[in-house]
Each structure stands twice: as C-alpha cells, then as structure tokens.
Design goal:
heterotrimer; A mainly alpha; B alpha+beta; C alpha/beta; B: alpha+beta; Arc Repressor Mutant, subunit A; 3 domains; C: 11-stranded mixed sheet; 16 helices; about 15% strand; globular
Chain lengths: ~100, ~475, ~475
C-alpha cells in the first residue's frame, strides 16, 4: 500500500505543532494519518475548479466595536492561575530555539 | 553629511523598508483594554489579550479609520479586506497565532514621495495586532543568549499595528533616512500614530541587497533592531558593504535575518530564513471581512489634513524657495508654515518671515503674525537693515509681540535715507579702487566688497538694497 | 417534575420551590452518578445557594426569569467564572476561568440554576465521550454502552434526570448524536444563532452551542433564552430571532419534508426502520414527502475531517504552558512547549492537531484544506437548492444505536463515521436537531434528525414537535 504520508513529514509536523511524540507514537500516527488520507482522497473525484471556497457559513461583514475602554481582568486573579509568575509578569524558561 | 559616498565599483544598493506603526487608538485592536504605553505590567489585559480559552476578537472601528488614513495619505487604494491567522509559537504571542492580513490587505499600491520628488512605491499597508513584551534575565545585557528566564508583559499584546511595506525602490541610505523621516511626518500629520522610534511605536526593518546594473536583484537580508533614523543609514551602509565584500570574495549572500548592533556598528546573524516557521496562513474564522463603503473612504479622504509635501510646496511657492530647501523642510516639519503664511496674509513679506521664523523659534512662534508682518514690511521697504531687523525680532520675542516701528524708533534704528547714502557710496568707491574697477568691468561679485565698505562707513545703518541701487547707477 | 417549562412556570408562580427542585435533582445524582459519571463537577453548594436566591426573589414579588429554578448542566467547555472548566483535558485540569461565557450570563439572568459541568470527549473531539481524560460517561439506558459524544455528559445528565436541561456544543454532531443515543432532544441551531464567546473553541467556523432536553418545547425555551446577537462574538447573527416556543404549536399541514435519496449508506436496519416510521408520522400529520438530492452530502465527512482539525490545530496552540493550565518544566521555552503539550493532550487530540497542522502546511494547503473549503461550498449550495423544494429534511441522526465501550477499536475512522449524517449541517451552517423516535436494537433509543435552512428553526421545531407527538 502506498503511504499517503511519510514518517519524515509526520516528524516535521509534530515539531511544527510542538508535540513531543515518542518514536512509537510517530509510527502509529503515520499509519493512522495515512489511512485517513487514503479515505479522504474521495474528494479528488469532485470537479472543483469553478467552486469558490467557503470559510464561513453565515455571510457577515463590517462588524466593529467602538473605541471605548471596558474594564478588563484583575492581574492578581490572572497571575494566580499562571504556572509561574514574578514581578507582575508571567515567567518562562529561557526563550531559545524559537523564531523571533 | 554621511561619509558614505556611494558603493565601490558599480555596485547598486536595493532597499525595501517594512515599517510597523502603533496606531493612536484608545483601545486595542480586538478588545477594549487600554492601548497605553508605560503602565504597570499586565494591567491592560482581558480574555482576548491573554488568549484565554473561549475568548473572541472584535475589531476596533477607529483602528480601521486610522489605517485608512495612512493608506490614503500614502496614495494607496483602499479595498475590501480580510484577516488571516499567522501561526507560530513564541511566549509573547498569547494565542500562538497573530491575527494579521495576508492576501487581501486594506491598503495596496501607493507611493511615498521623498522631498526631492522621488517616488518610493508602497506595496501594502495592512493591519495586524502587536505582541506582548518579554524581558530577559540572567544573561549579559538583557539579551536572550545565556539568560536564565524571561518575564512576559501582555500590555502591548493586541495593540493595533499597521505594517507599511515599501517596494524595493530605495537606492541609498540617504533615501532610506528620508523615507522614514517623511513617513513619520505623514503619520503625525494624519494623527494615526505618535511614531516614536525610541518608544517602539514605529519600528523599521530594512531589506537590503546589492547587485550590478543590468543584473537581477541580489539575495536580500532583513535587518532588524534599527532604533533611530540615524541607525537606519548606518545599518544599511554596513550591510551593503558586508554583502559586497562577500560577493567580491566569491562567496554567496545567505538569505537571513540579521540583528543590527548599534554598539559595534555591525549586523549579526539572527536566524536563517530557510529554517523559518511555516506560518500556515488561513482565513481568521472568528472575524468577518471589512469592506469600507465608498462614503466612508470619501469621508476619511476629505478629512485628511494637508500633508507635509503639499505644505512644503505651498510654502515654497509663497516664499520663493525650493520645496526641498532646508528652510521649507525645517519650518514645515516644525509646523510653523501656517504661521509664516499668516504673516503674509497680514501684509508681511513671506520670504523674510520664513527666515526669521526658522531662526527664532523651535516650535510655535510667540509673536502675533501681524506684529511680525509689520517688521518684514519695514525690511523690504528699506526702513531696516537685515541686522537691525534681527534685533527688533529679538525684542518682539522677549515681549511676545509689539510694535516694530516703535521698537525701531526707540533703538534709533532707521535705515539711512537714500540721499545721505550718496556721499558714503562715493567714499567707498574712492577707498576701494580695485573693487570699483572690477565692478565697472562687469564683475558682479566685486559689488559685495563695495557694499560691505558702505555698511562699515554707515555703521550698519545703510540699507543693502539702496546701496546696490546707488552703485549700479554710479556705474552706469 | 423534570420539564423545564413546567418547573419554571411553577417556580415563578410560587407553587414550587427552586430549592426543592435542586434537591430532587441532587438526589438523582447521588443515586446514579457514581455509575454514569455524567459530571466532571457537581456544583452542590452553588446550586443550593442559587436556588435559595431564586426562591427569595419570588417571595419578594420579583420575576427570576423564564428559566426560574431550572437545573441546567453545562458541558465543561463553557467558561464559568471561578469554577473549574477543563474540556475534560489534563492540560486544563483545575483551571478556573476569570470570566463567564455569554450564555452563562444569559442563564443567570433567566433564573436558571447551574447544577454542574458535564463530561465530554477531550476538547469536544469524539463521538463517544471515551476520549475524556477523566474517564468515560455511561449511557443511562445501558451502562455498558457509550452515551455518544462529544456532549455525552450533558446528554446522559438529562436522560438520567440529573438536570432538566443540558447545554452542549456541536461541531460535527456533538449534540445531535449523543441526544439520539440517549433518547433526548438535541439541537444545533444556525451557525451564529448562539454566542460562542466563552465557548472553548474546537473548530471556530463549525462550533455552536445548543440544548439537550426531554421535550421539544424545552429546547425551544432554552434557545429563546440563549439565542441572539452578542457584540462579543463577531460571527453572531445581528438579527432578532422570533420566539421558537411560540412557533412549535403549529402543525405540519402542507409542510414539505425532504427525503435525501442519495444519502450515504451504512445506517443499521433498526435506525432506517425508525426513520421510515418518522416519515410516515409526518405524512399522517399532513406533511408532503418529497425527494431531494444532495450529491455532495457523502463528501461531508472528508471535508469536515480536514477543516475541523485544521482550525483546531490553531485554536489549541494557545495551550502552551505559559499563561494558564498545565506546565511541564523544561530547560527552555521551546522544549517546555513540546513536553507540556505531549503530557496534556490525549491521543485523539494529538491526532487531530497533527492532521490539521498537516492540512494547513506549506505545499499541502491546496490539496487538503483549500479543497475541503470548496467541498463545503458545494454542500452548502446543494442544501440551498434542496430547500427550494423542501421546508425541512429528515434523516437518521446516528447510523446506529448506542454502541458498547471500545466497539470502534483502534481505528479512528470507524469512530468518525458516527457523524456521517450530522456533519453536513455544520459545514453548511444550517440548523439541525435530533428527536427521539422510539427504540431500536436491544430497546435502545433511536433519534431522527430534522434539518432546515438558515434561520428556519421555526419550521424545524414544528416538524420536531409533530414527531414528538407521534412518538408518544
């Protein structure tokens, strides 16, 4: 059976999605996604050249709000729910290996 | 004046600028928290700002209005537009995606004219939200490298930005500086932003490449962390030379993002664009398209103030100077041109007013236009010499106005009457035979020495124009 | 007394105490919740306090509102301020939102009593509630079987008498399918009918909140309360909706009920039989049955399983351990993301995030996500054409009655097929509802699905009410 998706691509996608998968999970996901994509190939039979994509079901436009301040959240309540906080701010480990 | 006097050989510089501008709205782009600089960390937050589960964005109408002002001031077409998600992970990105505009931005296809008239194309000016701010601790100089941890403040997250992307039409560091300076003046004029590079409300990234004429554009590098107009020039010049050195040495220029270090005056590799994230742009499902009506666009256009270029042109024509002359540029930049023209409306001489205003005030002139008008009239009527006029102006400034005639009288200033000038002119001719001979021979330059001599004899009371007229008639 | 209409009327009239209603339902919970596990959290004290407050209002001569004293179970993906909201995921275990969803505020304003947060498939991804990180919910009709999903907890809560009304969310059938499997009414309104502000997003262009109830009238009542424009949700429809409760009394005389002739196969015989009987019932009530075609219907599953995971992959990226929820420590932020999300998300969530990320990625967008959006347009347009010839459509809600735990095995696709009849209405944005219509194999409930055009909830409810009358 031809694979619809490779282990290499699945590994790359996992990195893009910031999901640390074990090698076993990578293999299993590759097999499952491959099976799904095989099934999803059914839409390749459709003639879609003249069809406009539909991203939103109900057509609306020009929805705005006024430029007026509304009370927001309490900092203490929010930081109390944070995994790590210091000095009124959210604390994270060193930010390396990420695009700026 | 820049020491950078063109590139070596026949290398040509190609620069495109991406400028991010924070809009001067009261609230954020997609939520009603305050858009304010300098508040205590994380005090301007709400579910949308923090990317809390379940939060949804709602677009700030005023941000669209200001974005339209920018687009129209840059001669863009305003068009129906949509928002997209730009997906990437970074701790100051609360949703791990930025809501921006992708293939249907609000403003497209405009231009910005430099003071000398050169047009730099504007590809687009689109809306997007700003990120939070991270501060790094434990490393050297607050840099990420070697830091132990970082702290994130989300006050800035969600602040409305407009990203203005120029076409790669800029051909020198000087043009780049002028572009940014002019852009800033436009932004201030239309009230869209306070555009302070030092506060981060205007951020400039430069795309720089070099090539030889007749060949394709070279590989470009993006330069970030340029925090002043002066740095823009320095960074571009450094980068151009760096790329030329590489290419002349037989190496290739790698497409990458580089960080400008003001301290050591060099750019350094930040990351290679080839490793860049795949942003997986797709239409933002939580927002709907924006299609500004023709009426709205017309309203915004009609409400635009006169832009700096038009103001310089107007002033230049009235004052008889070039639109990109230093006087016209400085006075318009300071916002003093309306005043100068008002002096003209009050019957004064605009040319003289321009000179005085440029010299006397850094911002708002404190003397009523009519008072300065009177002074300039006295000058051009020959009643005051230029030097005397300056003194009177100083007194007008000290008193926030006054009667120029009365001040001149009180100081005993009057230009010497033309008939008392005659003997002095003759004396100057007699005492400066060489100059007189040259002047009679047709050397107009020799007049200066003669006029100077008359000035000295008259103890500054001679009016330059009258002296000139007398000299000319003596020669005839 | 379990019907919301009756409860509210009695409480408002002062002939029934909200406190007594709450105690009755808490007693039912005490009885069977240990075996059903419909709830992630039973809000005992809050419910009692709230009921007391309602009773005090009535005693003072004030009207608490149209849901006075009605116990409501909320799917645990709706933000309740100060009360844990987990999406049945480890990554949000214990997280307390600092704000209320719009519908929570509307429920409070209407006098409802929130009795608990119900279990769901993690992040609403599933059709059986087996994907919950906190253990499955069991079908009250047969506890060896699933209640359906992802709103399995809310469906079971209503079916077991733990609450008078449940609220769920429906992205591909997550209200309608569990309603069918549990023998209750379940409604997904027109996209944009109910505010999504405070609903923790799975797929933004598909999600809608809706009611699960014992009666059609209760669903109408609930939608009348929670429906309507919300300035906090840019996609909410800016028109006032007519009262559905007022509409359902009208019969179906002359109504055109469409039978989709090219409906995908795969439904069990018992389900098909009940569906036929539903057509008969409507015909007997005066409706006209017409044939319609929706050729692209069968491609809905594929389009959905490319669009929904794509949007989900982006919506779930915010669970990164920085601002809230689970964080697994690591030497740097990038590493922290990877270990946190691996530890916090279950297998199905990971699978869909992977599929969605892939469908959007450079080089694959056109082939997958881009193409799926076109299929969506096709399905929408074909439904619109069908609604020129029919007022409502009738299909099975689920291909089978409730199935045993583990029946779908390791093959995700087998589970996905549960939603084959419900998915297209999410793609098109049209409303749909499941109405119990008798029993099938092993005496288990069967639900039939009524579909209607955009904002045609009144017709949909009229047909549903007729079916309900016939089913009695």
């Amino acid at each position: 059976m031809s694979e619809r998706i490779s282990v290499e691509i699945v590994t790359k996608v996992a990195r893009l999605a910031r999901l640390d998968l074990t090698p076993e999970e990578i293999d299993r996901t590759t097999a499952q996604l491959s099976g799904m994509l095989e099934h999803f190939a059914d839409i390749d039979a459709l003639q879609l050249d003249d069809v406009e994509p539909m991203a939103q079901p109900y057509p609306l436009d020009n929805v705005f709000r006024d430029d007026v301040i509304v009370d927001g959240l309490d900092r203490d309540e929010v930081l109390a729910a944070a995994p790590a906080a210091e000095d009124g701010r959210f604390r994270v480990p060193p930010i390396i290996g990420l695009d700026v | 004046m820049s020491a950078f006097d063109g590139l070596p050989g026949d290398w040509e510089l190609v620069v495109g600028l991406e400028v991010h501008v924070e809009l001067a709205t009261v609230t954020k782009l997609f939520s009603a928290s305050p858009n304010r600089f300098g508040d205590e960390p994380n005090t301007n937050i709400d579910p949308v700002t923090l990317g809390l589960p379940g939060a949804l964005p709602v677009l700030n109408r005023q941000a669209v209005e200001l974005a339209m002002r920018i687009g129209l001031a840059l001669n863009c077409t305003v068009q129906p537009c949509t928002f997209h998600r730009k997906n990437y992970f970074y701790p100051d990105m609360p949703k791990a995606y930025q809501i921006s505009q992708y293939d249907q931005p609000l403003n497209v296809d405009g231009f910005l004219a430099l003071p000398d008239g050169t047009r730099i194309g504007i590809e687009r000016a689109h809306m997007e939200e700003d990120t939070g701010k991270s501060t790094h601790f434990g490393g050297a100089g607050g840099r990420i490298h070697g830091s132990d941890y970082s702290l994130i403040d989300f006050n800035r997250a969600g602040v409305p930005l407009v990203e203005i992307v120029s076409r790669p039409d800029i051909r020198s560091a000087e043009q780049a500086r002028q572009y940014v300076t002019e852009l800033r003046a436009i932004l201030l004029a239309v009230g869209a932003s306070d555009a302070k590079m030092e506060e981060g409300s205007m951020r400039v990234d430069a795309n720089v490449s070099v090539h030889k004429p007749g060949t394709e554009f070279g590989t470009r590098c993006e330069i970030k962390n340029v925090n002043s107009v002066r740095s823009i020039g320095r960074a571009i010049e450094y980068e151009a030379r760096r790329q030329i050195d590489l290419l002349e040495g037989g190496d290739k220029v790698r497409q990458e993002t580089r960080h400008w270090d003001e301290g050591d005056g060099r750019t350094h590799t930040l990351r290679s664009k080839e490793d860049a994230d795949d942003y997986r742009y797709f239409l933002e499902p939580d927002l709907v398209p924006v299609a500004p009506s023709a009426e709205w666009i017309a309203e915004v256009r009609a409400a635009l103030p006169m832009l700096p270029a038009a103001r310089r042109a107007r002033l230049a024509e009235a004052a008889g100077v070039a639109a990109d002359s230093e006087a016209a540029m400085v006075v318009v930049d300071r916002g003093q041109d309306d005043y100068v023209l008002a002096v003209g409306d009050a019957g004064g001489d605009i040319g003289r007013a321009l000179v005085h205003v440029k010299e006397a005030w850094a911002d708002s002139p404190s003397v009523p236009a009519a008072d300065l008008a009177k002074l300039t009239t006295m000058e051009v009527d020959g009643k005051l010499t230029a030097t005397q006029a300056k003194t009177v102006v100083a007194e007008l400034i000290d008193n926030d106005g006054g009667d120029a005639e009365a001040i001149a009288k009180a100081k005993g200033f009057e230009a010497m009457a033309a008939d008392s000038l005659g003997p002095l002119v003759d004396q100057a001719i007699a005492e400066n035979g060489d100059a007189w001979a040259k002047f009679c021979a047709g050397e107009g330059k020799a007049m200066g020495a003669l006029v100077g001599a008359v000035m000295k004899l008259s103890q500054g009371k001679a009016d330059g124009k009258a002296v000139t007229a007398l000299l000319n008639s003596r020669r005839a | 007394m379990s019907d919301a209409l009756e409860i509210a009327a009695a409480v408002r009239a002062g002939s029934l105490k909200a406190a007594d209603v709450v105690e009755q339902h808490l007693a039912a919970i005490d009885g069977r919740e240990p075996e059903i596990h419909a709830f992630n959290l039973v809000m005992v004290e809050q419910a009692r306090e709230r009921a007391a407050a309602i009773d005090a209002m009535v005693a003072a001569g004030n009207d608490p509102g149209p849901l006075a004293g009605v116990p409501v179970a909320l799917k645990d993906n709706m933000c309740t301020r100060g009360v844990p909201t987990t999406c049945s995921s480890k990554i949000l275990d214990g997280w307390k939102p600092p704000y209320d969803a719009t519908i929570v505020t509307k429920l409070a304003d209407a006098g409802a009593v929130v009795i608990g947060k119900t279990n769901l498939d993690e992040f609403a991804m599933g059709s059986s509630t087996e994907n919950s990180a906190f253990g499955p919910t069991r079908n009250p009709h047969d506890t060896s079987r699933v209640p359906g999903g992802s709103s399995g907890g809310s469906a079971a809560a209503v079916a077991a008498g733990f609450a008078s009304i449940g609220l769920g969310s429906d992205t591909g059938g997550s209200i309608r399918q569990p309603a069918a499997l549990c023998g209750v009414v379940g409604v997904k309104p027109t996209y944009g009918y109910v505010s999504r502000y405070g609903l923790i997003a799975f797929a933004s262009s598909l999600d809608q909140i809706g009611p699960l109830t014992n009666t059609v009238a209760d669903s109408a009542l609930m939608l009348d309360v929670i429906g309507g424009h919300d300035p906090m949700d840019s996609t909410s429809i800016p028109v006032a909706h007519p009262s559905l409760l007022d509409a359902i009394g009208e019969g179906v005389e002359g109504m055109r009920v469409g039978r989709i002739t090219d409906l995908p196969e795969g439904a069990d015989p018992d389900v098909l039989e009940r569906t036929e009987l539903a057509f008969d019932a409507l015909r007997e009530a005066g409706a006209k049955i017409v044939d319609v075609e929706v050729p692209a219907f069968t491609f809905g599953l594929t389009a959905y399983y490319l669009i929904a995971p794509a949007e989900a992959s982006s919506n779930l990226a915010r669970y990164d351990g920085v601002r809230y929820g689970l964080r697994v420590e690591a030497p740097d932020t990038n590493a922290m993301y990877g270990v946190t999300r691996a530890a916090g998300f279950g297998d199905e969530v990971k699978r869909r995030v992977m599929l969605g990320t892939y469908a959007l990625s450079a080089g694959y967008y056109d082939a997958y996500y881009g193409k799926a959006l076109k299929v969506r347009r096709l399905i929408h347009d074909e439904f619109e054409r069908a609604y020129q010839h029919a007022d409502v459509l009738l299909t099975p809600a689920s291909p089978s009655v409730a199935f045993p735990f583990g029946a779908k095995g390791d093959n995700p696709l087998a589970m996905y097929l549960c939603d084959v009849y419900t998915i297209p209405a999410n793609l098109s944005g049209h409303p749909g509802m499941s109405v119990p219509f008798g029993t099938g194999a092993d005496g288990l409930p069967v639900g039939v699905q009524v579909l209607a055009g955009t904002l045609c909830e009144p017709q949909m409810f009229r047909a549903a009410a007729a079916l309900e009358r016939a089913a009695r």
